[in-house]
Amino acid sequence: VQLQASGGGLVQAGGSLRLSCVASGRAFRNYNMGWFRQAPGKEREFVAAIRRSGAGTFYADSVKGRFTISRDNAKNTGYLQMDGLTPDDTAIYYCAATTSVGPFSSVDQYYYWGQGTEVTVSS
Fold first, then answer.
1. Does residue 33 contact residue 78 with C-beta atoms inside 8 Å?
2. What distance lies between CA 49 and its chain's CA centroid?
């Protein structure tokens, strides 16, 4: 499956962005999906994940209550709604897909990755 992430940009602290991840090539509904981010000089870290059916969601503690992951399998698209952004959220955000059952927070569990979309939050 090929993944294309978009929706990043420059936003002020406290603002919102919605990232999208469009899948092609194989049935998106067969894959669990995750969002990760990587800030300059740091390792890639887990942000959120959603099961293939959309029935289960998982979040990093740092974004819980501010970010919402969702998906629309009919549109082959996943989303990450980001509210209450802070400068610490500045990073390149990647969507990823896997048929693995978890742990969804592990980079190693994901087979397919999008190219990343950059999010910059100014103070």
1. yes
2. 7
pLDDT in tens, 45-103: 999 999 999 999 999 999 999 999 999 999 999 999 999 999 999 999 999 999 988 78
User: For the chain, what is the radius of gyration of the CA atoms?
Assistant: 13
Q: Which of 11, 9, 26, 43 is nearest to 99 (CA)?
A: 26
Beta carbons of 33 and 97 less than 8 angstroms apart: yes
Residues facing 17 on adjacent strands: 82
CB atoms within 10 A of CB 41: 5
How does strand 117-122 pair with strand 67-72?
unpaired
The torsion angle over the Cα atoms of residues 112, 68, 17 and 89, rounded to 10 degrees, is -80
